[in-house]
Design goal:
The chain has 398 residues and is of the alpha/beta class. Helix content is 33%, strand content 24%.
Length: 398
């Protein structure tokens, strides 16, 4: 942390609001000034006096809007004072109001007047988090540059275990700092690959895989947020380019190899999250193969192993491989780590439906050349990207 920040902490009405006191404590412990703005329902979960004592500042509440002649000045002043707005917990209702630009209480009115970085820490039941309306609101906010800390998988207020638990206060405090302060990857170049490759059988058919590209895109977006120059080499996916990312679109494994090798020599960190095809048809048909001609015989040849050849291309870079397995991670992970000559190997079990290729969440084990494997429990891919970059960034020379 290079300098103290002015943080406006918005607290909304969810059971996770009790953790707001710890968020204030963590932020102040890092040297930041904190002011708290509570919604009316938040006061049912946490006492304003508690946050006033911990922050050393008067708590902003609805009364400021209700007091004649004072509302406009106070919410504009609060927005001007803050360098970063953090909303924790952010309920499903609050995310919807932010996405729609509604301003029906002190917090959302202040949010509309605020022009700096916004960090939200969602907290809700897993069924609510996965609802299409909530997912659409989240994507709308992401496109506007709103940052998300969590949610994570864990025990919920309902007594169940699922995705929707608010991120830990320490992670939220770190996300607040990352939104404003110079990122740990400033001055670095990060190369990320994402998605599948399609190997042509004929002009209308191809051999491919189910990779969605979501993990690679999440890593690219997080690396940009940390200050890096990011080049994303993307296979055929239907995902928007994260703001600030340089994108190169490719289709086949040979295309990806050429693109990667053109960028990798200048990279400090290479994240090979793409699912590159191991084989391709030896003789793709020039015209569409017709059913009436009988079942075709496809002769395959091996594609080049893009990852295994990278050490020679980018000898100074930290190299990270990804392995989508269907079991026995403890066997296949270390073996691939050695075979591919990488510094880290991120392995996950895609036979599990809850972390399959197209899932928004993932659970991985990271095998590394030095030290014991690191396990990351199931969490949103955006949150996982942050944890992975924390790990990989520690290997970069200062």
């Amino acid at each position: 942390m290079s300098r103290p920040l002015r943080v406006l902490l918005g607290v909304t009405g969810g059971i996770a609001a009790y953790k707001s006191a710890e968020i204030v404590r963590r932020l102040r412990g890092r040297g930041h000034a904190v002011r708290c703005a509570l919604t009316r329902s938040a006061t049912s979960f946490v006492a304003p006096l508690t946050l006033e004592v911990l922050s050393g500042q008067a708590v902003l509440q609805e009364e400021y809007l209700e007091a004649a002649g004072s509302g406009v000045e106070v919410h504009i002043e609060a927005a001007a004072w803050a360098e970063v707005l953090c909303i924790a917990p952010a309920t499903a209702h609050t995310l919807g109001r932010l996405a729609l630009g509604l301003a029906d209480d002190f917090l959302t009115t202040t949010a509309l007047a605020f022009t700096g970085p916004v960090v939200t820490a969602p907290a809700m039941h897993s069924a609510m988090w996965s609802h299409p309306a909530v997912r659409e609101n989240v994507e709308t906010l992401r496109r506007r540059g709103v940052r998300f800390a969590g949610p994570i998988e864990g025990p919920l207020a309902s007594g169940e275990v699922g995705m929707g638990r608010m991120a830990d206060p320490e992670a939220i405090a770190a996300a607040v700092e990352a939104a404003v302060l110079p990122g740990p990857l400033t001055g670095r170049t990060v190369l990320v690959t994402a998605g599948p490759t399609f190997e042509p059988v004929d002009p209308v058919r191809f051999l491919g895989n189910r990779s969605s590209g979501k993990m690679g895109f999440a890593l690219a977006a997080e690396a940009v947020r940390r200050g890096a120059r990011v080049v994303l080499v993307a296979g055929p996916v239907h995902l928007g380019t994260p703001p600030g990312v340089e994108r190169i679109d490719v289709r086949t494994a040979l295309d990806m190899k050429a693109a990667v090798e053109s960028v990798a020599p200048a990279a400090d960190l290479v994240l090979m999250a793409a699912a590159v095809a191991d084989f391709r048809p030896l003789h793709p048909a020039a015209t569409k193969i017709k059913r009436e001609h009988g079942v075709p015989f496809l002769e395959l040849e091996a594609n080049p192993d893009v990852l295994a050849g990278l050490r020679a291309v980018a000898p100074r870079a930290v190299l990270v491989g990804f392995a989508a397995e269907t079991g026995d991670l403890g066997v296949h992970g270390p073996a691939k780590l050695e075979r591919k000559k990488v510094d880290f190997l991120v392995a996950n079990d895609v036979s599990r439906k809850d972390i399959a290729f197209d899932s928004d969440a993932n659970e991985v084990t990271v095998f590394r050349r030095t030290g014991e494997p690191v396990f990351f429990p199931r969490q949103q891919k955006e949150a996982l990207a942050g944890g992975l970059l924390d790990l990989f960034g520690g290997m970069l020379p200062s």
